[in-house]
Amino acid sequence: MNQKPSNVFAAASYFVLLTGISAYVIGLWNANMLLNEKGYYFTILMYGLFSAISLQKSVRDQVDGIPVSNMYYGLSWFSTITALVLLTVGLWNADLFLSEKGFYAMSFLLSLFAAITVQKNTRDSLAKEGPVKNSAEVY
Description:
This protein is mostly helical. The protein has 4 helices and no strands.
């Protein structure tokens, strides 16, 4: 049985999510790179956040017995892995200091993990309010 997350844990999750995204975006804003490079890294962040939340939802749906198509489940995994690979390839080939590469990698991973945690907390909180007839009502 899932336990409703405490308000402090939920607030900490949102704080960490905002911290990770803010650090990544502020780093991009101040970076000495072309606008198309900044766009590439920003798009990877947005794609990564969406795919990680989608993966968390599809895995959780399966655990809770809510039907999930194999195509959606596989696409969620593929998208999350693709976002990680795209960031890795981009940073590997970037003309940045190792410390900058590490900064982007860590703020990216922090953001993805926090997004998953916020999604889980939201779902756990809503699940305690009563049965949901349609999983789309939760989101």
